[in-house]
Design a protein that fits this description.
The termini are far apart. Strands 2-1-3-4 form a four-stranded mixed sheet, with helices on both faces. It has one domain: Macrophage Migration Inhibitory Factor, CATH 3.30.429. It is an alpha/beta fold and 122 residues long. The model has no long low-confidence stretch (mean pLDDT 93). The radius of gyration is 14 Å and the shape is globular. The protein is built from four helices and four strands.
Length: 122
């Protein structure tokens, strides 16, 4: 499958820079809208059947990226391309796995936020 990046909460300027870095590597960037948050991550990447679910609750803050169908080498190249494009680091990043592909975006965000907070405790 073609590598795909799910992008949440990026400004138009940052999104354009993400897409430029992705295009050079043949990677698709898919923006996830708030109304899609209840869909399984795997359905957003094309790995699972999708269902129409509409989320109308509270939004979360901060940017989030999910990398799907990347080899280790491709992921390293893309992260290097992000640095070369002088994109600021994104705190919440995940790679699609068998374990998380059934989670929705709210569940993934909560888990990533817990991990981030645990790593950055003072």
């Amino acid at each position: 499958m073609t590598p795909v990046i799910l992008a949440v909460h990026f400004s138009a300027k940052k999104l354009a820079r993400l897409r430029m870095a992705a295009m050079r590597l043949g990677v698709k960037v898919r923006v996830v809208e708030k109304w899609e948050y209840l869909n399984a991550i795997g359905s957003l990447t094309g790995d699972l059947d999708s269902f129409e679910s509409f989320y109308d609750g509270e939004d979360f803050s901060g940017e989030l990226l999910v990398f799907a169908h990347f080899s280790d080498a491709q992921l390293d190249l893309y992260l290097q391309a992000m640095r070369a494009a002088k994109l600021p680091p994104v705190a919440l990043k995940a790679v699609l796995t068998d374990e998380n592909k059934g989670w929705n975006l709210l569940e993934l965000h909560e888990e990533l936020q817990k991990e981030h907070n645990a790593l950055h405790k003072s």
